[in-house]
Write a structure and sequence with these properties.
single chain, five-stranded antiparallel sheet, alpha+beta, 7 helices, F-box-like_dom_sf, elongated, F-box protein PP2-A12, eight-stranded antiparallel sheet, Monooxygenase, 2 domains
Length: 289
């Protein structure tokens, strides 16, 4: 029959399986890790489920260090206030995982986290971390609890002549481009019989003059935008401007504001939730105005 059938066994004519060739599981972990560096974090986690070699390679420090911000040590020191316990015995994968969770700092008025897929830095500043004109006067403003905010409360404006909200943050932002948004809602939402209902009784004045948004940075960048507040009952991210952090910048101070100070009329019925700082390349996910 020829040599091509030499793998037939004499006893019973059974066919012997050819010796198995090398598979993915035989790859050295160091080689696998060199490949994983080029994948994004979700892909690395999926590849880790293939076999033992990929699982081991997916824990390599240099794989996850390539996904962390270049200045992640400065970020950790700023957010965790130099807490040495944070880094003790933590591998780079665990550091990445911890930084992907919203971590509160500055007395709980701010949250910062890494986008799980890209490692880009995101930040929220609560209404409690903003300077709001008249906030302590209950005739104008009140703090209301809500599950629609990551901080579980928002500042609600009933009526005022001079509207001004200011904020400032100094932070070791990793190099990159960032967009800044105010998260606002016209009207006050609540639940009635399990359904979301928006109370619009105090909404007025926002259609007469636009709101001015301003942004400036410690290295001289500036942005100004104006727009009318619209669509009662919906949380909307209003884009205030963009800024760029260079690789030589150790810490960036960003000032931002939202004003409507035309005192010819009052305005009210507005919820101020937070200010969001987000990677500029993804601002289309949020930008509407």
């Amino acid at each position: 029959m020829g040599s091509s059938f030499s793998f037939l066994l004499a006893s019973g004519g059974a066919v012997a399986a050819p010796p198995p060739g090398p598979g993915l599981g035989d790859l050295p972990e160091s080689c696998v890790a060199e490949v994983l560096v080029y994948l994004d974090p979700p892909q690395i986690c999926r590849m880790a489920m293939l076999n033992r070699a990929f699982r081991g390679a997916s824990s390599a420090d240099f794989v996850w260090e390539s996904k962390l911000p270049l200045n992640y040590g400065d970020v950790i020191e700023r957010v965790f206030e130099g807490d040495a316990v944070f880094c003790k015995d933590l591998c780079k994968r665990d550091i990445y995982s911890t930084l992907c969770r919203p971590n509160s700092f500055d007395g709980g008025t701010k949250k910062v986290w890494l986008d799980k897929s890209t490692g880009k830095t995101c930040m929220l500043v609560s209404s409690n971390g903003l300077a709001i004109t008249g906030i302590d006067d209950r005739r104008y403003w009140s703090r209301i609890p809500t599950e629609e905010s990551r901080f579980y409360s928002v500042a609600y404006l009933q009526q005022i002549w001079w509207f001004e909200v200011d904020g400032e943050i100094e932070f070791p932002f990793p190099p990159g481009s960032y967009s800044l948004f105010f998260r606002l809602q016209l009207g006050r939402a609540h639940k009635r019989f399990g359904r979301r209902v928006c109370n619009s009784e105090h909404i007025h004045g926002w259609d007469r003059k636009p709101v001015r948004f301003q942004l400036s940075t410690s290295d001289g960048q500036q942005a100004t935008k104006q727009c009318y507040l619209k669509e009662p009952g919906k949380w909307i991210h209003y884009h205030a401007g963009d800024f760029v952090v260079s690789s030589s910048c150790k810490s960036m101070r960003v000032k931002f504001s939202m004003t409507q100070i035309d005192c010819t009329h009052t305005k009210g019925g507005l919820c101020v939730d937070s200010v969001l700082i987000y990677p500029a390349e993804y601002k289309e996910r949020l930008q509407r105005f």
